[in-house]
Amino acid sequence: MSEGTRLENANPVIFQRSGERVQTASEEDEDVHDPIDDREIFDILSINDPEHPLSLEELNVVEQVRVKVNDAENTVGVEFTPTIPHCSMATLIGLSIKVKLLRSLPDRFKIDVCITPGTHASEEAVNKQLADKERVAAALENASLLEVVNQCLSTRSI
Amino acid sequence: MAAESTLALSLVEEFVSGLQDSKAKDAAKGVKDGKFTVLQLVEALGSSLTSSQPHTRARGVHLLSEVLQECYGDLTEREGTPFSFHILCWHCTASCKVTNQKCFQITAFLYPYMSSDDAYSCQGAISTQHFFLFFSTVEVLIAFYENRLKDHYVVTPPVLKGLKALTKCTNLPPGSAVSMLRSVFQDIHVQSLMLSERACVYSMLINIMETREAELKGLGADFVFGFVQSMDGERDPRNLLLAFQIAKNLIHGGYDLGKFTEELFEVTSCYFPIDFSPPPNDPHGITREELVQALRAVLTGTPKFAEFLLPLLIEKLDSDVQSAKLDSLQTLAACVSQYEHKHVAEFLQGLWTSVRREVFQTSSEKIESAGLAALTALTSCLSRSVLSSDSEDSLSTFLDFILKDCKHHLCEPDLKLVWPSAKLLQAACSASTRASHIITVAVMPSLLEQYNNRTQCSHRRTLLEVVQRFIHSVKNCQSSDNDESVLLAFREALCSIVFSALSESNSSLQITATSVLTSLAQQAGLLVESDIELALDHLTRLLLTEEDDRVSLAVVECAGALAQLHPALVITKLIPKLKKEMFTEPMNQDQEEVSELHSHHAVRQRCLSALAAVSIQPSVVQESTPVLLEVLRSAHTGSVNFSVDEVVLTCRSLQRIAERVQDSEEAGRCFHDVFIPHLLSLALQAALQGEGSSGTRSPLVEEVVLSAMVPVISTSCSRLQPTLAGQTASRAVSLFLDGDVSFLPDNSFPSHMQLLKKQEGDSWSLSRLVCLLMGSVCSLPRSVEVPQIDKLLSALEEMSCACSHPLSYTSAAKCFAGLVNKKPQGDSLDSLIQRMMKRVCSELDSPSSSVRTQAFTLMIWVAKALLLRYHPLFTTLTDKLFSLLDDADLGPMAADGFSLLMSDSTDVLNRACHADVRIMYRQRFFSENSAKLVQGFNAAPQEKKPNYLKALSNIVNKLPKQVQVTELPALLSLLLEALSCPDQDIHLSTLSCLEPVLVNPPQVLIQQLEALINRLLALISSPAMSVRIASLSCISTLSHFPVHEVLPFRARVLRALAKPLDDKKRLVRREAVQARGEWFLLGSPGGR
């Protein structure tokens, strides 16, 4: 982030983190089956933003209410909200979310990632791109794109 | 004589022509031992030194230099004529053999160094016979070496070596150091030399700078110039460390840099920021950090560099490389500590812009905190400067920049930049009192106004947190002087927002408010008494009404902080209210409303923890403990209804008080006169009642309560002063041995109680009181002598072997062990242990015995007591313990016993109880016994092997991490075996041993990677979820192994990890998600 590259949105609104999930007694019980729920998917999505050292949660890009999971029917739906309506990173954020879910969920799930309706200028185009399996696969063949996605998904060290 | 010179000659011959380097050592040894003198060596060298072959000359000089390097100390001692005479002889012979001309050259060369008389007497002395008499050895050698610098380049390395040896001479003749340097600078181009020769030149400079500082300073800037020339272009890190050291000495030693200041800066700053990663297996062990520190010491050493350094730092801060930014910021913070405002004035705007950018847009905490530290340093540099009437006040100019850029962000508490701005302002604020005045006055009113205007709780909380950090940073800069607080003007406004926040219903706002309150109270002289009273009222109200655990925790903490500062107010305001609340019976008792009861229980719980938290000052303790003891007494008599839980909590609070109260005579009296007798008396009353009637049982009869009382007694006893401790010991012993109850309050006990004798009908309500005896006599300082100890020990031994009640026999065993641990070394101790072992062994060896468990318990505790003090008889007990691993019934128990031996016990035999605990007893036990264990494992029948593995993993698990890492490789195959045996406990404890080792994997582990991964992947489907979690977390750590080692396993691991993603337990899935994510990143672009 040198001086040359200006941030698109240098001073975004910050939202509070929801805190660690409280561990319940039933979660520690060997015999109880814990279904995959919205919160669990939401916790998986604590991804770093490509521009800010903040998680998508703190930027309100991902909210728990916009995560829908149906364990029985094997579907997961995530809607994300770019910080500004013409955010050029929208596709990248969507792709990161998609990749993270693909890596973290059993393959029985159908994963649907799209932009929260009415929050982005080129909403349709992005949604179409994210829904297209082949385009997602092709994007991940692209080494430099994969590199950015992986950086979002790795826990920051320095 | 002849023999000596032949010896020297033969050594020279073998070194020069035979090229045997070892002969140099022999020659040096010969000189040192006095077998021959340097003279004779030099004579012997004659022909090689004057040879026409440069390589032979180089060899000759090499030998001489090597010898000098070893013997430079001897040289100075024997300085004087005899030696120089011989040198002379050598020169003469040499000159005769070559040409007379050469001799003349040498004479002419040495001529300037002679005094006029000497010169006169030597004039015309072509033979130079007497000429050299006037020179000391060192001078002659120096002259010789300086001259040789002009020789063929192959001669140069040994010559430099010789010069280096000469610079180590403590009494170089005046002027010679300078002359040496001049010739080196003149005749040698340092950077075209090899690595080790360059190092030689640098060490020469360092040596001379140490001993001949004044002479070098006389050289003026020439010396600096010479050095700059010789280090210009240096590339080797080892030499750079030397060169940086010289540069640092130049700067700190006050050498005249003259017109070469910029040159010196240029020649060193070109390495900034250091970019160096040592090659793997680097034998020199130079780290990047060393180089960074060395260079930083040079660059920040003098304000003369300011005009060059600051622009460089601004430029490097623009870099994309994180480490460059970090280094620049740290260097900035270091350099300004030497500067005055005139040095930084023209760069302020640039520096501020760069620092602000780094903090606003940072991606790493390290850079952020380095940026803030740099800002603090810069501000304090500006605050230090003395103002003159005509110059502008650069501090306020600079703070104006900061305020202009940051203040407005504080008005947007929901945007990202509010925190970076606040941190920048606080960093500047904490630099000096003046800065904190300027910034607080500018910022505080708007923050307070904001707080009052905002309605959203999250905004208010952010503002309050910002305020708190300002209070904190103001505190930091005010520690020394007693000025009145900067915040005094805002006292009322601050108090009012804190109290209003405490009255809000939002819990996070309340929590923040309590910490603001604590910070305010810690500002000396800020709050007045009425503020504290009001604060205590608010805290009491929250304690009694607020259900949220986090809030009550914060409130309790805040009350504790206030009690430290204002004990009197806490005694009058807080404690009576808490007491009243605790003794109120819950309302509507008839209706038995569960929730009501529940909330009442919660209130009592909070009151108890608050009472414990405020009791640090002895004066408060004297008020709070009677309340707690009163609770216990009422619970026992039943006058007020307290649940068992509440009674246990009361004991915990008492324990916490005993731990935290400040050491003083007062506190000791309180323990001795109040705590201990009251607790013993209550326990005894409850035990007698439990034995007698049925009816309503006192909660004090419960075993949990009794167990909670033990730490109260033991903590109090461990903190007693020696005289009181002695009294307590004799009281406790006479109570338990003789039934002497005279010191107990409420004395209505039957006489002649036999607490340690077997009770009629095997009743254990009295016998288990032995745990209280353990609490008192085992926690006393080691100097205190326990009376009637032999009688006591045999009673305890009897009880621990005969009683059938677990708490009773375990406590008796622990008590026995605690006393054995402190008993002085000697025959009586040895015979005591042998007697006990005899009894224990006879019980253990008869399979039909009903008290085998008891005997085992006694043995393991005594073993621990002996292990801790390194008693030699310990091995007898361990051997028995090892043999029990094969026992059908006691085998698993013996395996668990190893965990007891290796872990710290909470109630006896720890350092807090003044037990005799030697350092590293665990390592010692491990190193003495691991081999036995491995042997036993190999010899054991298949069905007994798990016991050995369990014992091993119990031992390894408790070893300190560093030891585990070094010892584990040897045990690796056994541990891998443990992972494939069927016992889940063994899996778990082995995995927990392995995990720390995996962070820094030793080579052995990497060799066994295949086996390790196979076993871990198998454990992913273990029926126990804790094993699944632990193995997944190990697999996650494996992904950080060297990439080329683990990459071959990537596909297999990813496939295997797909399954636990659908595990039925959420905690397992979470771990699997983490591990699979890491493994996906492995070997992928942007990953690892």
From TrEMBL, chain A:
<feature type="region of interest" description="Disordered">
    <location>
        <begin position="1"/>
        <end position="32"/>
    </location>
</feature>
<comment type="function">
    <text>Component of the cytosolic iron-sulfur protein assembly (CIA) complex, a multiprotein complex that mediates the incorporation of iron-sulfur cluster into extramitochondrial Fe/S proteins. As a CIA complex component and in collaboration with CIAO1 and MMS19, binds to and facilitates the assembly of most cytosolic-nuclear Fe/S proteins. As part of the mitotic spindle-associated MMXD complex it plays a role in chromosome segregation, probably by facilitating iron-sulfur cluster assembly into ERCC2/XPD.</text>
</comment>
<feature type="domain" description="MIP18 family-like">
    <location>
        <begin position="46"/>
        <end position="109"/>
    </location>
</feature>
<dbReference type="GO" id="GO:0097361">
    <property type="term" value="C:cytosolic [4Fe-4S] assembly targeting complex"/>
</dbReference>
<dbReference type="InterPro" id="IPR039796">
    <property type="entry name" value="MIP18"/>
</dbReference>
<dbReference type="InterPro" id="IPR002744">
    <property type="entry name" value="MIP18-like"/>
</dbReference>
<dbReference type="GO" id="GO:0007059">
    <property type="term" value="P:chromosome segregation"/>
</dbReference>
<protein>
    <recommendedName>
        <fullName>Cytosolic iron-sulfur assembly component 2B</fullName>
    </recommendedName>
</protein>
<comment type="similarity">
    <text>Belongs to the MIP18 family.</text>
</comment>
<dbReference type="Pfam" id="PF01883">
    <property type="entry name" value="FeS_assembly_P"/>
</dbReference>
<dbReference type="GO" id="GO:0051604">
    <property type="term" value="P:protein maturation"/>
</dbReference>
<dbReference type="InterPro" id="IPR034904">
    <property type="entry name" value="FSCA_dom_sf"/>
</dbReference>
<keyword id="KW-0159">Chromosome partition</keyword>
<comment type="subunit">
    <text>Component of the CIA complex. Component of the MMXD complex, which includes CIAO1, ERCC2, CIAO2B, MMS19 and SLC25A5. Interacts with CIAO1, ERCC2 and MMS19; the interactions are direct. Interacts with KIF4A; the interaction facilitates the transfer of Fe-S clusters to KIF4A to ensure proper localization of KIF4A to the mitotic machinery. Interacts with CCDC117; the interaction is direct.</text>
</comment>
